[in-house]
Amino acid sequence: MDFKNKVVIITGASSGIGAAIALLFTKKGAKVVMVARNEDRLKNVRSNCEKFGHQPLVIVADVSKDSEAKRVINTTVSQYGRIDILVNSAGISKIAGIVDDNALKVFDEVMSVNLRSIVSLTHLATPHLIASKGNIVNVSSIPDFGALAARTFSYSTSKAALDHFSKCVAFELAPEGVRCNTVNPRPVRTEVIAHTGVSKEEEDAIWKEIEKVTALGRVSDASEVAELIVFLASNKARGITGSSFVTDNGSLLQGVSMSTSFEFK
Ligand SMILES: NC(=O)c1ccc[n+]([C@@H]2O[C@H](COP(=O)([O-])OP(=O)(O)OC[C@H]3O[C@@H](n4cnc5c(N)ncnc54)[C@H](OP(=O)(O)O)[C@@H]3O)[C@@H](O)[C@H]2O)c1
């Protein structure tokens, strides 16, 4: 798979799955555009990438803000003149139960990053993707298939909606030769749990619990997800659109996705 001269925007590239995607696309020869809010972390990932290929372009942006999403697309096009692939990996997970006082605040926050920002970036990138006959890969999750865990309704709803949105976009853009798919991973050892604000001990306990409820008894490495995304973005997947690809260590084989004995506080 050769991505020479292909311009790939990756959101959430400062850590976890997004960082692994940036590294793999760089290794495959792409011109990578890395987007996230934390400049130091982005620069760390960039210095890792540049050992293997083209130096990625770093854009520090909060994609949940319309003006910043616009800046991501405009900066990319003014630098490289085209967009071939959009990978939306930026995402947050915040905990609040439906009866909690902050339920709606958390819901709005999660939806604005996990869904609305992707709608916005897709809207802005589409004319360029039509011009390049490019494609979109969205990083979803597996709550489509059941509730993830108690008090995660915001996250679960955002990801289920993202799968549906991706199918609608795939249908609408198919006549233009633009594909759109999702990758639905679980569990992948990244910063995702640390970023919810839990302590290190709680984080370790959660990963241990999660590991136990997968059929394979394991947690994925972010590079495994990156490999699948790069495949879907490549010409080898030219017949694939509107599909969701589960890579979940067999979690769904046990019925409900990720129910563990861990209770989010
Ligand atoms: N790890 C798993 O088990 C798992 C399972 C299923 C799905 N996923 C999904 O995979 C994706 C990547 O998650 P991860 O596990 O790699 O977690 P992570 O390590 O926490 O990475 C999340 C990324 O999103 C970025 N981000 C968050 N809010 C942003 C915003 N408003 N604007 C721009 N960037 C933003 C973060 O960067 P900054 O903080 O620098 O902005 C970071 O780079 C997410 O969509 C997540 O829901 C993960």
How would you describe this structure to a colleague?
This protein has 265 residues and is an alpha/beta fold. It has one domain: NAD(P)-binding Rossmann-like Domain (Rossmann fold, 3-Layer(aba) Sandwich), CATH 3.40.50.720. 43% of the residues lie in helices and 13% in strands. It contains 7 helices and 7 strands. The protein has helices at residues 16-27, 39-49, 66-80, 103-132, 153-173, 200-212, 222-233; strands at 7-11, 31-36, 57-60, 85-88, 135-139, 179-185, 244-247. The protein has a 7-stranded parallel sheet with strand order 3-2-1-4-5-6-7, sandwiched between helices. Strand 4 (85-88), helix 4 and strand 5 (135-139) form a beta-alpha-beta unit. Helix 3 (66-80) packs parallel to helix 4. It is globular. The model has no long low-confidence stretch (mean pLDDT 94). Bound molecules: NADP nicotinamide-adenine-dinucleotide phosphate. The site of NADP nicotinamide-adenine-dinucleotide phosphate has 29 residues, from helix 1.
Order of helices and strands: EHEHEHEHEHEHHE
What's the level 1 CATH class? Alpha Beta
Low-pLDDT ranges? none
Mean pLDDT equals: 94
The total strand number stands at 7
Oligomer: single chain
Shape: globular
- How far is the N terminus from the C terminus? 45 Å
Number of helices: 7
**What is the radius of gyration computed over CA atoms, rounded to a whole number of angstroms?**
18 Å
Sheet/helix structural class: alpha/beta
